Every structure is written in structure tokens, then in C-alpha cells.
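#struct-queue
[09:14] JT: dropping the first one here, sequence first, then the C-alpha cells:
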Amino acid sequence: EIILKQINDNSIREEILDMMSYQDKLDKTYIQLYNLGALNRSNVKRALFDECGELNHEMKKEWCYWKKSQKPIDRAAVLEELSDVFHFSLTLHMMDFGKTFDNMWLEMYRDYHKDDDWFTLLDCISRGTKFGLYLCVILSEKLNFTFDEVYNSYLEKNAKNYQRIEDGY
């Protein structure tokens, strides 16, 4: 099992590094297009907070105890919101650590958060803490997504963001 986990974590690491390249290019596109000079960390954190709220809303069926008519959880919508959370978490991570991802930190945070539910992780991520990207991976697992699903969803959303730029969004 440990060998399998190492292979999976190395695969996750490679996909995260690939996502960082895509995110860096997208961030640079926004900087150039809107003459930003650089991204404002506070604004990135605000965007991350907002996307965490949207993900929480997609999970409402799980926590909305006062409304019996709550719509069922839409797994595809949850995955799309999760990919938005990844976009801003990647940006913050690169602001703090550059294009690096260390499996040791992932394992440490997995162990530390092993008893936490998805909302506890989302709450931590929403604060824009330095190790939020690692928590995003763990959140994905808590929501029962494979990392390949997350990776593919991220790539789709990244392409959609470029289409939005082209459309003047």
C-alpha cells in the first residue's frame, strides 16, 4: 500500500506542477491584459474565499438541515467549483513557494487532517493560508474525487477562462 501511495502522490505532484504552469500562464495573461503590474495577494485571497463559498453552496444538501426541499448535490458542479478553488490556491502557493510541491507536506497534512470533514478543510483553505494547496488535494479526497478528475476539471476550467477572456468576460 505504501508503494502504491507513493506512486499516486508522485502522480499528483506531477499534475500539480503541470497545473502550476497553466496557472502561471493564466495569471500572466491577466496581469498583461489588465495592466496590473502584479497580482494583489489580498484580491487573490478574496477570490479564493468567494470560490470556497460557492463550493460550500454546492454542498448545501449535506448541511442545510432546515430545508427539506434542498436540491441534491451535483457532483459535476462540485468538481467545477473545486477546480476554481484550485485556481486561486495555486496562485497563492506560487506567490509563497514558487513552482514547487513537496509530497512530505502533503503526507504531513493528510495525517494532521485525517479526522477532519470536507467543511473543516474548506474553512482552512478559505483563509488563504500558506499550505492551502496541500489542503485542496486532501479536500478533493474527502469529496471522493480522484486527482485525475480534479486535474481534468482544472484543465477544462482553465480553457474556459481563456474563452471568457476572448469573449470579454
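[09:21] JT: and here's the second one, same format:
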Amino acid sequence: MGDCQACEWLKSEPKLYEDDKIAAILARNAINPGHIIVLPKAHHTIIEQVPDYELAKLSKIANKLSIALFESMKIQGTNILIQNGLASHQEIPHFMIHIVPRLENDGHNFIWKPRQLSEEEMSTVEMQLKEHTRTIGSFEKEKPKPVVLDKKPEEIAQKAAKGSEEINYLIRQLERLP
């Protein structure tokens, strides 16, 4: 997307982590030093647009980066934040996960006051949500990529003729198939 600030970051900012689908960068407008942003390379505005398999990978990467923050910066905690939609104060229309390193008494307060719901409100909300949660658990899978052989059939035959352990094992496995 041409005018997305996060998509521009993906092109220009140094990466703390990068693979074919995900990147992690240091936040320029950091809440605390070490504030990391993990984002998909594909442009997705909100979490509902991110494929399940990509969201799972984003979560794993965020977890590993949080561990790296603890080990490298000797922090005492992290806030893992997702601002999803305008009402949540999402300023950049690109899904991202913020990992904010925390120290005790660092001056930031992410505490909100919980609202006590009545039994009727709880029951109404529960009924509304149950209608829309029936399909949870059927996850979108990444489409399998074609298998690319790194060796030519002739090379495999040569290894088999020489008695290669790897090839013999594979041949034995194939012979077991009905």
C-alpha cells in the first residue's frame, strides 16, 4: 500500500528480525528504550485480516523478542499491545504488535478501571458472542509450497549405489508403503 507508514518502515528501517512474511523494528517514537514493533510484511489493516498461520508466527516472534528484551536489557516486564481499529487509538492502518519493555516505576500507566457488569449485561454479551464463536478452532492453514528437490535423480541413484545411509533409509521407508 503506497501511503502506509508501516509499509514504508518495512522498506527503510533496520530490522531486528526479518523473514519472508514478518519483520521487527525498533519504534522511533518509543514508549521506553527497546520498544519493538512486530509486523507482517503483507499489508493488513487490522487483526481480522491477518491469516491465522501468519498471526501464529507473529505471536511466536513477539514472544522470542520479548525474551530477548528481558535477557539483553535486564527489564522487569513487557506490555504486549495491539491497537486494533480507530476506537483503540490505532494511528497507522497496518496491523502490528508492540512489545514495550517495562521497569518498575517507569512512569507509564497502562491500567484502566474495570467496569462491573450486571448479570443481565453479562448474559446478553455472552449470548451475542456465542453466535459468532462457533467456528473458532477451524484455522486457516498456509497453502503448501511445491517440493523442490535439491538433488537430481542421477545424484540420488549414485548415492544409493554407494550405500548412502540417508538414501538407504529413505528407500526402506518407501518400501514400507503399501
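[09:30] RK: nice, looked through the second one.
[09:31] RK: The two ends are 50 Å apart (CA to CA).
[09:31] JT: good to know. The first helix runs from residue 5 to 12.
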